[in-house]
Amino acid sequence: MVAERISFVPGGAGKLRVSDGGQGGVPVVLVHGLGSELETWRPVLDRLRASRRVVAYDQRGHGKSDPATEYTIADMAADLDQVVSQIGFERIWLVGHSFSGSVVSAYAAEHRGRVAGVVYLDAVGDASRLPEVKEYFRRHDAGMTANRLQAAYSEMLGSLATPATRSAVLGSSGRMDLAAFAALRRELGTFDGLAAARKYEGPRFAIEAEGEQNPVRASQLPGTKRIGIPGVSHWLMLDDPEATARALEEVLG
Q1: Fewer Cβ close by (within 10 Å): the C or N end of the chain?
Q2: What is the C-alpha to C-alpha distance for residues 197 and 166, in angstroms, rounded to an integer?
Q3: Residue 80 near residue 42 (C-beta atoms within 8 A)
Q4: Rounded to an integer, what distance in angstroms lies between the CA atom of residue 251 and that of residue 98?
Q5: What is the mean pLDDT of residues 9-20?
Q6: What pTM was estimated for this model as a whole?
Q7: Measuring CA to CA, how many Å separate 75 from each of 138, 162, 183?
Q8: In 3D, which of 75, 74, 93 has the Cα closest to residue 84?
Q9: Contact between residue 244 and residue 236 where contact means Cβ atoms under 8 Å apart
Q10: Cα distances (angstroms) measured from residue 20 to each of 44, 66, 80, 89
């Protein structure tokens, strides 16, 4: 396996920290969710790199990447394009977790010839058609503080998250630029994920935590094959990296 290489590449609003490693197959780019960072992928990253080249990076305002004055899904997709282009990939698989289901959908819609396939990891498909979701984000996120953000993530982690998962998620969310949270959740309420998905006709998979079905989940997008993983929280790659890596290898293979 080729050793990990950490670099910083210019994005649309500053530097983006990138981890690149492994070799073989069509390269895979992992896009973390809101309040996470590339280290959230670590347990799965090392497993996947045993057989293929995999890139993960910190999105703007997250991890060790620079913060921004503006946060939109279009901005995040443009940053993703900067990472892909500067590494020199001609064709990629995209894996997006949580909020970043919208980021990979936006990217695939505009770069159809470059994307070999899209994998949504417990990710958002389309929240724009649910006014109650938009209203919840508006009320809940107004005047967000660091303490309230930690409380919000504690609630989202739920009862199935392991102690290690809880520690990792609360740590990464605490390092996020606070301004990114409300801005990007507001974006989720306006981004037409269904229209974006219809522009990309390639393979599309959703690997999701088993449990109650959610109408905003990416598995609800047409033509999306679903794979369920039991006994895990929303951060399934941290709770059960073996099962998550197996599911990803099944799809990517």
Answers
A1: C
A2: 32
A3: no
A4: 18
A5: 96
A6: 0.97
A7: 21, 32, 12
A8: 93
A9: yes
A10: 14, 19, 14, 12
Q: Helix, strand or coil for residue 3?
A: coil
Helix (H, G, I), strand (E, B) or coil at 15: strand
The answer on pLDDT for 165 being more than 90 is yes
The amino acid at residue 206 is A
Question: With 70 as the cut, is the pLDDT of residue 1 above it?
Answer: no
Count CB-CB contacts under 10 A for residue 182. 18
CA–CA dist 221, 206 (Å, integer): 9
Domain count, the chain: 1
What CATH number does residue 63 fall under? Answer: 3.40.50.1820
Question: What Cα–Cα distance (Å) separates residue 39 from each residue in 43, 91, 124, 236?
Answer: 8, 24, 21, 14
Asked if 118 and 104 touch (Cβ cutoff 8 Å), the reply is yes
DSSP 35: T
Q: What span, in angstroms and rounded, lies between the C-alpha atoms of 218 and 221?
A: 5
Domain range for 78: 5-252
How would you class 226 by CB atoms within 10 Å of its CB: exposed for 0-12, middle for 13-18, buried for 19 or more? middle
Burial of 122 per CB tally in 10 Å (0-12, 13-18, 19+) = buried
Residue 25 has pLDDT above 70, yes or no: yes
